[in-house]
């Protein structure tokens, strides 16, 4: 379908925490058009802050109709930018992982009868039983996590089967909470989608299946057999299997685009929709990670991921099905306090400017004279704690640093050390040939990247195109629709067509690396102390 048809495009979408991004790639997988909708700025009527609404008790949600309205807006913008959508041969996309969308009884009729004379958000206004979807930042479901682990005997057993011990943001505990606290809503829900499959559903005008990779972020999939895990489904809520539908292989062609898009936007009726996936698996597809390489995404969350041969989950991090090779897996660890924490420290210490923030990073001493700061604005995933903790060079807890701007370096250094420590626990080993591929909003900040390079003692690269998640989803569409070379591996195919390059951004500084080598164990002690302090404050 796609080979040698240089006039054909693929459309790719990334429904992330703060925005919806769209890119159109041409037949050589080069970016032709792009647009985005920033939720807070362009859809202020939904009153989100950074794309979400934070409620009390660690509840974090996003209005599902805001996402639908963003799609209306983004497609209009794309067409207005001159993109001829009739040339789009295939569509794939990705979305923030773990969040769930609840479709009301009979919503499938609404989906299959979309009126091209109306906006999607008008036609789908009554399609959802829950108007606010829980998202990955939510950590209100500890009770349901414990119940799920207990039903398996213990957390290890759940992790061995589903790739992760029970996590608050994972879909199983989120669905269990809806069933327990809003049984009426659960009852009138005919389908539960992940955010990725929700978006794909709109494009095919019917319920889209959840794919293996995003499905492995639910605590509900048996990741080795790539089937729903009956024991987990039963432990969560009755009738769940029917509400989730079938799970499909990544790169499955789900069907043709719905007539709505043909009539309203001029898409070709032959345009195919490929199963959507999570943003981190899509990013892995966009990056082509080799042995000894680790990817770091500095988006709203900081995530580390790498390709794995073994699919046995442990108590730390997550093992997911690999999106582009069904014989492989991927390891992932996610930290909630990423960009938003960096931004808060920046605003506190220097105001709006990243340049001023970077000046401090560039003019202060590596290692911060031994002062360490840990910042968990939101309850962190690993370790599960909240608050700010500052330590003097002897490891004593202090309330503030000798100079307030020391928070800038302390924040970036502790985030970088945390990335290294946890990626090693995930399977990454630093060595001669190790390197880091960087992506996400903060990857444009070379002062931050230099610290990461020094902490990892490894060079930092990026791709010559930004937005690796959106790009990866575009590659997935092109690969799924290829006409020839049935057995060619994903990355061989992509590299052959795109000829894309990596750009070296930073190389490690030997003196700084030595300082950080010594700081790693000190950091570990401080993290343990902070953990103890947090829990001692919780228990009277
Ligand atoms: P998402 O998780 O929504 O995909 P992005 O990957 O687009 O988010 O990252 C958005 C974040 O990037 C913002 O919250 C902002 O803090 C951060 N960012 C943007 N530019 C810079 C910069 N120059 N330095 C550090 N962080 C930046
Ligand atoms: C990964 C995670 C986040 C979201 C948002 O486990 O929770 O990275 O996918 O990007």
TrEMBL record:
Residues 133-286 form the Carbohydrate kinase FGGY N-terminal domain. Its EC number is 2.7.1.17. It is an enzyme of class 2 (transferase). GO terms for cellular component: cytosol. GO terms for biological process: D-xylose metabolic process; xylulose metabolic process. GO terms for molecular function: ATP binding; D-xylulokinase activity. It catalyses: D-xylulose + ATP = D-xylulose 5-phosphate + ADP + H(+). Residues 295-481 form the Carbohydrate kinase FGGY C-terminal domain. Keywords: ATP-binding, Carbohydrate metabolism, Kinase, Nucleotide-binding, Transferase, Xylose metabolism. Pfam families: FGGY_C, FGGY_N. Phosphorylates D-xylulose to produce D-xylulose 5-phosphate, a molecule that may play an important role in the regulation of glucose metabolism and lipogenesis. Belongs to the FGGY kinase family. This is Xylulose kinase.
């Amino acid at each position: 379908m796609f080979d040698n048809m240089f006039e054909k495009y693929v459309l790719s979408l990334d429904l992330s925490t703060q925005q919806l991004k769209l890119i159109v790639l041409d037949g050589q997988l080069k970016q032709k058009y792009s647009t985005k909708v920033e939720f807070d700025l362009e859809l202020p009527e939904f009153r989100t802050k950074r794309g979400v609404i934070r409620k009390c008790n660690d509840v974090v949600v996003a209005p599902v109709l805001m996402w639908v309205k963003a799609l209306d807006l983004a497609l209009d913008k794309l067409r207005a930018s001159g993109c001829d959508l009739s040339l789009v041969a295939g569509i794939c996309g990705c979305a923030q992982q773990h969040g769930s969308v609840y479709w009301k009884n009979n919503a499938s009729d609404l989906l299959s009868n979309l009126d091209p004379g109306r906006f999607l958000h008008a036609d789908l206004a009554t399609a959802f039983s829950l108007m606010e979807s829980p998202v990955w930042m939510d950590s209100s479901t500890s009770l349901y996590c414990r119940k799920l682990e207990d039903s398996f005997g213990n957390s290890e057993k759940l992790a061995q089967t589903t790739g992760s011990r029970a996590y608050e943001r994972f879909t199983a505990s989120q669905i269990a909470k809806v069933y327990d606290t809003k049984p009426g809503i659960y009852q009138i829900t005919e389908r539960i989608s992940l955010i990725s499959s929700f978006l794909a559903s709109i494009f095919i005008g019917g319920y889209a299946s959840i794919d293996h990779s995003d499905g492995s972020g639910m605590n509900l999939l048996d990741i080795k057999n790539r089937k729903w895990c009956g024991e987990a489904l039963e432990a969560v809520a009755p009738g769940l299997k029917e509400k989730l539908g079938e799970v499909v292989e990544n790169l499955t062609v789900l069907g043709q685009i719905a007539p709505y898009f043909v009539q309203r936007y001029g898409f070709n009726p032959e345009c195919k929709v490929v199963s959507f996936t999570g943003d981190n698996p899509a990013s892995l597809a966009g990056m082509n990670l080799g042995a000894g390489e680790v990817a770091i995404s500095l988006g709203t969350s900081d995530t580390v991921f790498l390709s794995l041969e073994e699919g046995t989950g442990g108590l730390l991090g997550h093992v997911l099905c690999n999106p582009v090779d069904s014989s492989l897996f991927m390891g992932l660890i996610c930290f909630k306090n990423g960009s938003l924490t960096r931004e808060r420290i920046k605003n506190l210490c220097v105001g709006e400017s990243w340049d001023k923030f970077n000046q401090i990073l560039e003019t202060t001493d590596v290692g911060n004279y031994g002062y360490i700061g840990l910042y968990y604005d939101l309850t962190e995933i690993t370790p599960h704690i909240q608050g700010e903790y500052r330590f003097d060079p002897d490891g004593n807890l202090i309330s503030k640093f000798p100079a307030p701007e020391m928070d800038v370096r302390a924040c970036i250094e502790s985030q970088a050390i945390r990335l290294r420590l946890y990626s090693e626990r995930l399977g990454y080993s630093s060595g001669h040939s190790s390197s880091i591929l960087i992506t996400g909003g903060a990857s444009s900040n070379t002062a931050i990247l230099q610290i990461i390079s020094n902490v990892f003692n490894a060079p930092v690269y990026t791709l010559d195109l930004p937005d690796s998640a959106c790009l990866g989803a575009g590659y997935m569409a092109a690969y799924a629709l290829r006409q020839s070379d049935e057995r060619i591996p994903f990355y061989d195919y992509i590299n052959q067509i795109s000829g894309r390059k990596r750009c070296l951004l930073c190389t490690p500084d030997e003196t700084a690396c030595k300082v950080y080598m010594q700081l790693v164990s000190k950091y570990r002690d401080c993290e343990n102390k902070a953990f103890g302090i947090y829990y001692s404050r919780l228990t009277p």
